[in-house]
Amino acid sequence: MSGAAGPDSAEVPEERRFLSTEEAAALERELLEDYRFGRQQLVEMCGHASAVAVTKVFPLSALSRKQRTVLVVCGPEQNGAVGLVCARHLRVFEYEPTIFYPTRSLDPLHRDLTTQCEKMDIPFLSFLPTEVSAQQPLRGRWGMVS
């Protein structure tokens, strides 16, 4: 019976690892060029996956109403666009996101995603309130920071 797998062999998960910067760039290039995904599709998939990850680690059923608040930190680059999508999905999943977006992008995709979040009444901050940054940690005001 050499080579035969035992009943538990299928249950052993593969070791997880992170993609390197080069691997992530190659994967993105392959999805854009070979598979003909658009940039907006990739941003939407990444933002949705990020929101789902939050729901897996912090399920609503385990949180008080105050703990459902999430501070999503966004910048002007592609990860910022992913954060905007993540915040939008978190709102749909009944979390209470606030977006910290100090440097806004002029990119049309960012503007569209910002408009969508605004239409969903997701609050935006361009700076952190003094009382938060000086006297209490972010987690004191928001249940989660992503």
Automatic annotation (TrEMBL):
Chain coiled-coil ranges: none
Domain YjeF N-terminal, residue spans: 24-146
Pfam family, one: YjeF_N
Top-level division of the source organism's lineage: Eukaryota
InterPro entries: YjeF_N_dom (IPR004443), YjeF_N_dom_sf (IPR036652), YJEFN_prot_NAXE-like (IPR032976)
GO molecular function, one term: NAD(P)HX epimerase activity
One cellular component (GO) term of this entry: mitochondrion
PROSITE patterns: YJEF_N
Entry protein name: YjeF N-terminal domain-containing protein
Natural source organism: Rousettus aegyptiacus (Egyptian fruit bat)
Lineage, broadest ranks: Eukaryota, Metazoa, Chordata, Craniata, Vertebrata
